[in-house]
Amino acid sequence: MKAIFLLIMFQIMSTIKSYEFTIEEATIDEIQTAFNRKKLTSKDLVQFYINQIEKLNPIYKAVIEVNPDALDQAIKADQERKDNTTKSHFKLHGIPVMIKDTIATKDKLNTTAGSYALLDSLVSRDAGVVNKLRESGAIILGKSSLSEWAHLRSSLAPNGWNARTKQAVNPYVATMDPCGSSTGSAISVATNMVTVSLGTETDGSILCPSSANSVVGIKPTVGLTSRAGVVPVSPRQDTVGTVTDAVYVLDAIVGFDTNDAVATGDASKYIPKDGYLKHLKPGGLEGKRLGILRAYPYFGFANDSKTLTKFEKHFAILRQSGATLIENLDIINFDGIISMFNSESIAILAEFKIALNDYLKDLLASPMRTLADVINFNNKFAGLESLEKYPQDLFLAAEKTNGIGKLEEEALMNLTNASVYGFEKLMKENKLDALVTPYSDSSTVLAIGGYPGISVPAGYDENGGPYGICFGGLKGSEPTLIEIAYGFEQATHNRKPPPMSINCDQ
Q1: Hey, what domains does the chain have and what are their CATH numbers?
Q2: What span is annotated as the signal peptide, if there is one (predicted)?
Q3: What pairs with residue 455 in β-bridges?
Q4: pTM here?
């Protein structure tokens, strides 16, 4: 698939095809075949993407920094391939990856969450997922833009805005919301500025930009991928995902990490012994039970007749491909369950302050050691215009919290109960393999319980704006979700490149 967290190609999860190779819209399989046939080198591939970034990034603002060592890494990869080293046989070997600017890289790149407050800070180590990428032979091409501080600084800032790159632009319809916080991760893949990318999601930050930018995004079960070295929001909900040939990347980055031992240790039991690639198989929808709720916000289509009409053709495709659609489902005490969702912001604000302070203290060098330091920096340097437009209301609310007290404990219990008596009960009682929802409307349902989801391109509206379809499941259900998503993708081939991304010289 071409993911956040966080995704893309004409056939995002597709197998190799017989037509003549071009870099634009090429999958990992196609690129590796071109490497093996000596039609392409990693150096040429990296140079192509650097050229694309120089041409397109001034328009779309999806990339914050390009790695000055990327070409050297590519030359090294080419030599490893020539020497037939063990690493050269890995699927991600020599493949450029864009990393969201909340994910630490211990190299010449900054890790700033889009804020000048962390510019020139020194991280102590690569993030766990970056270390796994390097071990797989991937090339770190650069850092992608995002909603500043993963959209937790200001409630008024639009999706895709940060101080360092300003406003990211949707490549399909410039006036359309690029969505989420992993905006640059999705846009950079959608516009062929990189092969694959990593994003992060606390609530919607992979699924939403994937839907809005016509790419595949996998938001994994919390703990399946390490969050060590990631600028945090909520360790309870944060997860690193992929916006690309997603399954190849997921295979590379999952697993135990001593620096995120509890979460990755608990989730390691979900990782299939033979990996995830074997679940990219024909007939993946055959026999699957898919739930569709037509009258429930967050869980379904909320009686939106326009959206339902738009997705009816997709329901027909799912049925024709062998899936059973279970409709007219009911959620007991739905109003009570939805009221518990309001506890999410209470929990996240307290968790954010604790986790961010811990992250900042772990930096080798930085004038920022607490959330209060960041707030003071913005007051001093952000500029009057910026603070008037996008005040630090979320930062200030988080700073007022004082750990996990009675209010926060009650909020956390509400979120647990909402998950157990809402989503989990719905899935188990109806023996569902996945819940089907439009766009990224189920992101909060999946977020508060740490559940996985996959967004796949579903089509384009009357203005050319992309939209996705989301398949969500219980913890550890990634193999089943991949089969479902792959089956849908292969039956529809909805992905098409944005109008400017290929013919960028015109």
Answers
A1: 28-492 (3.90.1300.10)
A2: 1-18
A3: 217, 470
A4: 0.93
